[in-house]
UniProtKB/TrEMBL annotation:
Species of origin: Marinicrinis lubricantis
Keyword Isomerase among record annotations: no
Pfam families tied to this protein: HxlR
InterPro entries documented for this protein: ArsR-like_HTH (IPR011991), HTH_HxlR (IPR002577), WH-like_DNA-bd_sf (IPR036388), WH_DNA-bd_sf (IPR036390)
Protein name as catalogued: Winged helix-turn-helix transcriptional regulator
Length: 113
């Protein structure tokens, strides 16, 4: 019997989405473009870590950062097509969690969908 070998693409995909907070950031952006402070407050993440994750996701082509030349400057983050393609996966994880994870609190209080 041959031992199974992970596909390098699958391994890379898992390393991207398994990074701490990344899945929650992508999940939060499924509802549409958001400003940094909205993301930060919705998932209770530190600004430094959120900034790092957003930069990583932007480099991976998952998140788009748009700067609006206003006073003060407004910056919004949204999912690219590549990021939006993760929606079915995250929705399945959401369904699984509702069926198998003990209730901790009202889901929609912590993550405003």
């Amino acid at each position: 019997m041959n031992p199974s070998v992970l596909c390098p693409r699958f391994e890379k995909a898992m390393s991207i989405i398994s990074q701490r907070w990344t899945g929650l950031i992508i999940y939060q952006l499924l509802s549409g473009p958001q400003r940094f402070c909205a993301i930060e407050s919705s998932i209770a993440i530190s600004g430094r870590v959120l900034s790092e994750r957003l930069k990583d996701l932007e480099q991976q082509g998952i998140v788009h950062r748009e700067v609006f030349p206003e006073t003060p400057v407004r910056i919004e983050y949204s999912l690219t097509d590549k990021g939006k393609a993760l929606e079915p996966i995250l929705r399945e994880i959401e369904k699984w969690s509702q069926a198998w994870i003990d209730q901790i609190g009202d889901c929609h209080e912590e993550f405003k969908i």
